[in-house]
Amino acid sequence: MKKTLCLALTLAFIMGVVGLAQAQTMKINGAGASFPYPVYSQWAHKYKELKGVEVNYQSIGSGGGIAQIKAKTVNFGGSDEPMKIEAQQESDLLMFPMLIGGIVPVINVKGLKAGELQLSQELLANIFMGNIKSWDDPAIQKANPKLKLPKQAISIVHRADGSGSTWLFTHYLSQISPDWKAKVGYGKVVSWPTGIGAKGNEGVSANVKRMDGSIGYVEYAYAIKGNLTYAKLENKAGKFVAPSIETFQSAAAYADWKSAPGYYMVLTNQPGDNTWPIAGATFILIHKTQPDAQLAKAMLEYFDWCFNHGGDIAEQLHYVPMPAEVVKMVEASWTQEVKADGQSVWQ
Amino acid sequence: MNRRPPTGRRLINFLVSGLSVLASLLGITLLGWITLEVIYRGLAAINLDFFIKLPTPPGMAGGGLGNAIAGTLAMTGLATLIAVPLGLLGGVYLAEYGEDSRLADNSRFSANVLMGMPSIIIGVFIYAIVVVPLKHFSGYAGALALAIIMLPVISRTTEDMLRLVPNTLRETALALGAPRWKVTVLIVFRAARAGLITGGLLGVARVSGETAPLLFTALNSPYWFRSLGEPMANLTVTIFNYAMSPYSDWQQMAWGASLLITVGVLALNLTARFVLQEKK
Amino acid sequence: MREHRVLRFFQLWPQTGAESLGDIGFRWLSGCCALLVPLLILAIFMQLLYYSIPTIKTFGLGFLFSQTWNPVTQEFGAASSIFGTLISTLIAMLLAVPLSMVIALLLVELAPPRISRVIGTLIELLAAIPSIIYGMWGLFVFAPFMADYVQPALGNTLGFLPLFQGPPMGIGMLTAGIILAFMILPFITMITRDVFLLVPPVVKESAYGIGSTTWEVTYKVTIPYGLVGVLGAGFLGLGRALGETMAVTFVIGNTHRISASLFAPGNSIASCLANEFAEATEPLYVSSLIALGLVLFIVTYLVQVLSQMMLRRMYRAWSVGL
User: Fold this and answer.
1) SS3 C68
2) Residue B275 · residue B201 · CB < 8 Å
3) Which domains does chain C have, with CATH numbers?
């Protein structure tokens, strides 16, 4: 027993010393959407190497991000579901866009390669409604006459946590299918008619990869990094498109940030021949009244670095960075709205 | 055994015996399957970097779980620091003073109940009383949750071990005029030393594999910790996050961490056993 | 007078002669530490109850019976989680209890002492492995095994039953139940073995003396003799299975739905908490999750109390210290 105690005491002592020695480094905590996590984690890694500032972003889902920034358990939250300006004001929050990406249906069907399967709006909705139960269903076969589809049950994988990706995906399904709108609706969590739940974009990708005959929806970077097979979708113009940075950009071009109060912006089901139908912006949420001016400044400096120097990393992962004029608008909002001790944090 | 014709009774006996051998083999196979799988898949992830480097974002090569190992050690250490004195004293009361009093009865009963309480409930409790008021996740919250889980284990083993100390020893010392607390601390504790160490080791083993109470108390972090007052990396939550991820390098890390935890917990258990047997 | 009673309750009143100040201090200190444990349980209960009040006010008892779990419309019902908890636990108990009984039988009656000790140690080590390892193994090794072999086989042979219908995903209620069974098996085996060992040899020997077989001795003497203890062991395992989080969360599928098929994904209270707790935004959502926790707390508390009472009664009856 004494030995255990000794050990524990020594450990505590070492911890104390380490704590004193390194207490000065700035540390910024964030949590939220898993949709942009591949980029955020690489940004943070790079930023630590360059500036020594540690940014800790936990990929826990948009629902978690909003909950925790409201509860002030983190310094910033991440969400893919835009928050209305009234809701922002109510919680003393400022929301701004960080990246634009796309939600992509991913499948695991033996013999099918990326982009081979084409899903019309009706097929997509019917599969997730549970109306189409097998991959060799005549409806799928008819739309994809060249493919040899196996006789295999369709297993749906959806998000189990409160998710901005779910919000975007179901928001899109509600637009294209009145049946979906009436029976399921849209939100960060919905009552899925069928399928298994997984945590985060990570969990959905992992499950789809693991299970034969499965279909799920993830941010495009996850499809690429996880080597998953995506399906082509029919867009508003009736064209079948593949996910890519170009088709996301085409959707992003329809974003009119100037007339979007509180940066509230939904980019699903945009027009244009080459537009990916389920694109979306991902947002950062911070408190307008910051308790610690120094930390607030370090945080905004980090975001500034992401806007101005993070574009390459984002594009490598197939996200669309924010255009310069939007960045200018966002930084003007910082100056105007983010305050610590009554002073503007960002000059 | 005298010779009897092979009646139905003997047949049933034979069948049940066979069944029990099969069942035991199943149990052992299971243990073998799980440990071999953990070792096989875990060893691939273990190298020097695994112990000293920080994790990298998905897709970047290299990196390790040094921070998570440090975090788990620190939180388990702090939990031990909190739970051992409290549990030890509680156990002393149960064995030396309370015996059959209502308090002792209640305490013993509650300790058994608390040991069987789902650990996630402890996590929810700590979230409500520590994380919400302090407004952030922290290593302290995680350590506190672990301490609550450890406390009844220490308290009950302490009682059992102290009870094994013969009463004559206490009486001799008391007769010499030593005050009771001195007798307890200096003589009874010493006599029960091996048992108490075992209890401590088992307590540490019990919490070092816990995940549920850390999910929303300590959370996680990709960096080294500076103090316990911030979200803290730890092995088990890292296993959970990495296992659920689609990246094969992260999954491999999760297997490495699983191996480390398994080896750690089994080693603690075997040491505890060894210490106790040595004494006997 | 009253004060006296209170002090007697805590057994803090010196029994003989005068105690030194150090002794009184030490007694109080240790008494307080002993009091800490029951106070903790009380505090946990009060906290859970306090945070559950909004849910109880909004949904009343209907919370327990409603299947809806929809954070968008702010409607919450615990039925699917309770159902999942009960079903996965039931599967686990059906598999683990008989198996652990026969293993305990082997350890106590059949195997030579040396082998029995080795197997006993191995099974105790199995009980010490943290649940997250079972979860890892379940997800990466066992679930694919279920999907590739067990579920297709069950579907082909027993597929006419609604229990075994649906796509063989590997993940789902059945897999969760089996992993749970693996988890509690060593635990129940250990306690059952201890109970069997406590049966006085005289009783067993006299049964052997009149020509009973090992199984008959176990079935007709040992088990009835230690029935309360065996039940207690079962209940302890039940308590574990009901609240197990990590092993289940990995493989149950995390879906708020009640399905007839065991292949279908589901949800347990613990897995629901693990998945949704950190991200619940609205107060009512948080409150409903904590209310789920309260349900789990009450159920496991009752199970624990029952098992403690049984084990205690047995140990008392045999006048062996617990």
Assistant:
1) coil
2) yes
3) 96-271+302-317 (1.10.3720.10)
SS percent in chain C: helix, strand, coil, step 5? 75, 0, 20
Does A206 contact B57 at a Cβ distance shorter than 8 Å? no
Give bridge partners of residue A219 from the DSSP assignment. Answer: A103
Tell me: the pLDDT tens digits for B82-139? 999 999 999 999 998 887 888 999 999 999 999 999 999 999 999 989 988 887 789 9
Report CA-CA distances (Å) from C298 to A234, A302, B123, B145, C246. 51, 47, 16, 19, 20
> Which member of C147, C257, C279 has the closest CB to residue A60?
C279
Q: Highest-confidence range of C65-74, C157-166, C278-287, by mean pLDDT?
A: C157-166
- Picking from C15, C33, C95 by the largest number of B CB atoms within 10 A of its own CB, the best residue to mutate is C33
Q: What is the DSSP letter of C262?
A: T
- Nearest alpha carbon to residue C133 among A91, A23, B243: B243
Which has the closest alpha carbon to B252: B34, B31, B38? B38
pTM across the whole model: 0.87
**Closest residue by Cα to residue B267 from B214, B208, B211:** B208
- Using CB atoms within 10 Å of the CB of residue A238, give its burial: 0 to 12 exposed, 13 to 18 middle, 19+ buried: exposed
Mutate to test the interface with B, among C37, C192, C249 (most CBs of B within 10 A): C37
- Residue keyed to tokens 């509230």: A264
- Give the residue from chain C lying closest to A154, CA to CA: C167
The DSSP H or E segment spanning B30 is helix B8-43
Q: List the beta bridge partners of residue A289.
A: A339
Q: Where are the extended beta strands (E) located within chain C?
A: 69-70, 75-76
Q: Is 0.85 exceeded by the ipTM?
A: yes
Q: Where are the domains of chain B?
A: 72-234
Q: How far is the C-alpha of C33 from the C-alpha of B96, rounded, in Å?
A: 13
Across-strand partners of A119?
A233
Give the CATH number of domain B72-234; options: 2.40.70.10, 1.10.150.120, 3.20.20.70, 1.10.3720.10: 1.10.3720.10
